[in-house]
Design brief:
The protein is α+β, with helices and mostly antiparallel strands. The protein is built from eight helices and four strands.
Length: 296
């Protein structure tokens, strides 16, 4: 079992614990905002299970039907999480709307808030941990799960503030009002997550800084070549795909050109980790006098 799958399974366990705590907080208070917070935790469980499945699929090696591997399965999980976040926010807005017109007096708000605060602290710690792992391991599924949980933390903080103010002021409409505000923030988070994940599925180019760094590596480690052009790169999950044409002197032996390619590939893999690199070697008459100039 890979480390990413273990982390995703940890998310499922954490989500179950947090759900039980939030349901208890809602049961103690009767707050619609706490009910909405608990509802989002159910979606966290579903999303975490989806991440486990996606990571299991993406870890499969390339086969006859998928010669480039299964790495994009992680983006499908991230899209699903984004959609679930949007649905959760709409559900919260619905509950807030109804509670605005029929506000309720809260029961045992102090104890309920204490239980919800414990659940929020657990979520916060795990969200930060997952986000860092997703960035370090280049896993869209873990990163999406971390962002989802962080959105849940923002929801919970807003809910806690709302319930506390209701208990202090007696103005029951504060409960649905703050729940609605936080729901709109979650809605934006879900949209952003879907947008990023769809970009990955559509082979969107990485950040310009990433492309510039890869081009720099080619320029520095292609000693003996003339230029590199038609440089393209994309990412699929934790794998970076790089391809370009490398122009070498016409008199250069095939073995020497191969050594240059090996040197470039090694440098790129040290920078990116797992990578699929395609280099098309060309004679000098194919030079375009643009692209990546080799540093001698």
């Amino acid at each position: 079992m890979s480390r990413t799958i273990k982390a995703a399974l940890g998310s499922v366990a954490i989500a179950v614990v947090v759900l039980l705590l939030k349901v208890a907080a809602w049961w103690l208070t009767g707050s619609v905002a706490l009910y909405s917070d608990a509802l989002e935790s159910i979606i966290n469980i579903v999303a975490s299970i989806a991440a486990v499945i996606a990571l299991s699929v993406s870890a499969k090696p390339a086969d006859a039907n998928h010669p480039y591997g299964h790495h994009k399965a992680e983006y499908l999980s991230a899209v699903l999480e984004g959609v679930l976040i949007v649905l959760a926010s709409l559900s919260i807005l619905r509950e807030a709307y109804y509670d605005w017109f029929a506000p309720k007096t809260l029961d045992a708000p102090v104890l309920g808030l204490a239980v919800n605060l414990l659940a929020t602290a657990i979520n916060l710690g795990w969200a930060v941990f997952l986000t860092r792992l997703g960035r370090r391991w280049r896993s869209p599924a873990l990163s999406a799960d971390g962002k989802h949980l962080m959105a849940d933390v923002f929801t919970s903080v807003g809910v806690i503030v709302g319930v506390a103010l209701v208990a202090l002021t007696g103005w029951t409409r504060l409960d649905p009002a703050l729940a609605a505000i936080v729901a709109l923030n979650i809605l934006w988070t879900g949209y952003s997550l879907v947008r990023t994940s769809v970009g990955g599925l559509m082979d969107e180019a990485p950040d310009p800084e990433v492309t510039a760094r890869l081009r720099e590596l080619v320029a520095v480690h292609a000693n003996g070549a003339i230029e590199a052009h038609d440089f393209r790169t994309r990412s699929a999950g934790r794998v970076t795909f790089v391809e370009f044409h490398l122009v070498v002197p016409g008199s250069m032996a095939v073995s020497d050109a191969h050594l240059i390619c090996d040197r470039i590939e090694a440098a790129i893999r040290r920078e990116t980790g797992e990578a699929v690199i395609t280099i098309h070697v060309e004679p000098p008459e194919k030079a375009k006098h643009q692209g990546v100039l080799v540093l001698s």
